[in-house]
Amino acid sequence: MAENEKPYFIGTVKAIFFENPENLYKIFTIKVKKTNTDWDAGDIVVTGSFGEISEEEEYRFEGQIIDHPKYGKQFQATSYKQSRPTGRKELISFFSSDEFPGIGKKKAEKIVDELGNDAIDKILQDPHALDFLKLGEEKTQNIIEQISSNHQAEQALYQLNHYGFGPTLSARIYQKYGAQTLEKINDDPYRLVIDVKGVGFKRADELAKRLGITGDDPRRIKGALIQMVTAMVNETGDTYVPGTELIQRVTGVLRSNSQTDMTDKVVAGLRDVVKDGVLLVEDGKVYEKDLSDSEWSIAQSLKMITDTFKGVSWTKRAFKKELKHVESDFDVKYDDSQAQAIEQSLTHPIFLLTGGPGTGKTTIINAIVAAYGKLNDATLDPASDDYAISLAAPTGRAAKHMGESTGLPAMTIHRLLGLTGTEDDEFAEPSLDCKLLIIDEMSMVDTKLFKTLIKAVQPGTQVVLVGDKDQLPSVGPGQIFSDLINSEVFPTTILKNIHRQDSDSTIIQLAHDINEGIIVDDVFQNRSDRSFINCNSRNVPDVLSQIISKSSERGFDIADVQVLAPMYRGQAGIDNLNFVIQNVVNPMKPKRKEVSMGNIKYRINDKVVYLVNTPEDNVFNGEIGKIVGIIKAKENTDKVDKLVIDFDGNEVTLDRKDWANIALAYCTSIHKAQGSEFEMVILPLVNEESRMLRRNLLYTAVTRAKRLLIMVGDRSAFERSIRDQSSERQTTLKERIYDTFKVKRDVKSQDDETTPEKPQEYILTMDMVMNNAINPMIGMENVIPSDFMDKKEA
Ligand SMILES: Nc1ncnc2c1ncn2[C@@H]1O[C@H](COP(=O)(O)OP(=O)(O)OP(=O)(O)O)[C@@H](O)[C@H]1O
């Protein structure tokens, strides 16, 4: 092999024996015709991501020979090209073949004489290359199309590979743009930032440089702005970013390789992206257009539901009577706020119910459903055609809990709406055919999901939203539930009385104290159902190992013991703790089956968590399962390693390529555990990641414990979390609601003690941006604030 020459194989594809349509990954054998390696067998297995590969066709593959631990030597292709006729003779017979009607031998010779041995490349690059043949436009076009359809995917993927994209990302890009891949990318590589998940600004920027796009090119500035807004809202959970901060940050990023100040160009770029309809600016706030639209859409849907509600047909007396029946049926006496909640939910189009653990939210949902059935003479039989009640929650676990406590079908919001949890959801416009909709665990619902949910509600439906507003807000941007409550536009009940009867339980009281910001020594005292072990982060793994061993000696099933940590990195982080606990509860033993995926080993009985939504398998993000089978590649006809996982009675088999969708779950993030409860929760909290020490995070973790809670770590980390009063997320949903419901804002914000005014520096008008608040030197004389406004407002 010549120096610098990449290892290659040329050969005909014999049999494709694996294809993943999602990422174009394929495995096949080729009959080797030529190679610059020392491979001397007639066939070789080739793996990689390929656009179109046809059996019996000849290709040239570049890559490397690897020694797969199980399958032996194979060629891992990083790029490929359809093998083309290169010699004069081969080219002539290619062009005169049946593929190109109208071209005989003579014309084929003419083509090769005129264009030479790289005739195919020339035709692909220049649509006029064949003009000299004077075949007429239609015929010429047909020939070009025939050649490019053969070579399109291959060419695009080849080029993407040369641009430095790995096979998976290249495949994703090709899937997005298809035939126009190269054209689109060459025109504006920064479009990848918006269009293709996994391509960030830096990546696009590297490509742009190769394509000769300069540092202050408007496309570069636009790309940086869009990426920065997305990154910032995802990081903060706000639904917008302050204009000045955005401009400063983007200017900083763009300045990295040039010293000239770009502020004025960034401001101009912002105006352009706004014109393009990707971002939107209002009062100094910059939004992703989608998120801003979602806030408006939510407000409008809520207004529609409110306006179309026709009231109820029964009297207050009838309600009181029915409440008595329900009390006797369920053998419970509702306290005043509970009774009020039941009545309000049944007499209003939209009702919000919030309360901490054990305050009776589930109890109220039961009562609402029962009373609704009786008062409206509505059937509670799900099998009946007239059944019109929908119960849903954001996670599978929470939905299951809801289903069990009501005895009625409950499902995830995704499933209720027929969403797939993929990017296609953005375009979904579902419609909900029910008269009463109850959503539990509302604090976990983010802006975009709520938009789709509430838009699906039909006129005349009653909507009851239930949750604990003090828990962590949703992972995605927004804080829908607390915004709705704080708007004070909708009837709301805040349940405060703890009803859970087990008088020995001190966990619930602790949770309420944390929520109130009360630090008493009691937090760190050992009680019958909770304890605190003071140690530093280095000792956390060791202490945890001991607790886990003890708990299993005492008969606790590891499925009931959940370690919850706020962060992934570090000694006390999720990744390390999973490794440590796995070695305690499920260590490697001789003759035991084990499979690896990177650094992670999976064994039978391992506890794992599912990380995506796959409704077709009935498994959803956050569900915890147990590995019950390992089928090695050599043991099955597909020749791939498989894991069989039991998700609470639902057995799912995952091929190796899908293992990225699971993780060990001895320890999971507090975010992931939201909506689930466990018999025993072990909570390590250390000072290392101080930005994680939030009151709502601690509160959420503590409220996951049903029976036992063990807190481990720095006492000061717990104290800091309880003391934390970090500000709420910045959103404008309340304003959208006030505008849509025509509520006078000034009156509202004066009354509203729970939502303090935003700090002054955040209330930036675009005038302030324009008035050179950032850099007095920039010349923006010709720019006026309305340039930044959405057409709607201008
Ligand atoms: N008015 C009441 N009188 C007596 N017991 C009650 C009353 N309300 C609720 N309970 C009981 O208190 C316990 C907690 O109630 P419930 O499960 O409804 O609370 P929750 O707010 O849904 O709690 P969590 O969020 O922790 O699930 C239950 O055992 C329930 O039966």
UniProtKB/TrEMBL annotation:
Its EC number is 5.6.2.3. It comes from the Bacteria. PANTHER family: DNA HELICASE B (PTHR43788:SF6), DNA2/NAM7 HELICASE FAMILY MEMBER (PTHR43788). DNA-dependent ATPase and ATP-dependent 5'-3' DNA helicase. Has no activity on blunt DNA or DNA with 3'-overhangs, requires at least 10 bases of 5'-ssDNA for helicase activity. It comes from Companilactobacillus mindensis DSM 14500. Belongs to the RecD family. RecD2 subfamily. GO terms for cellular component: exodeoxyribonuclease V complex. This is ATP-dependent RecD2 DNA helicase. Residues 347-538 form the AAA+ ATPase domain. InterPro entries: AAA+_ATPase, Coronavir_polyprotein_1ab, P-loop_NTPase, RecD2, RecD2-like_HHH, RecD2_N_OB, RecD2_SH13, UvrD-like_helicase_C. GO terms for biological process: DNA recombination. Pfam families: AAA_30, HHH_RecD2, OB_YrrC, SH3_13, UvrD_C_2. Keywords: ATP-binding, DNA-binding, Helicase, Hydrolase, Isomerase, Nucleotide-binding.
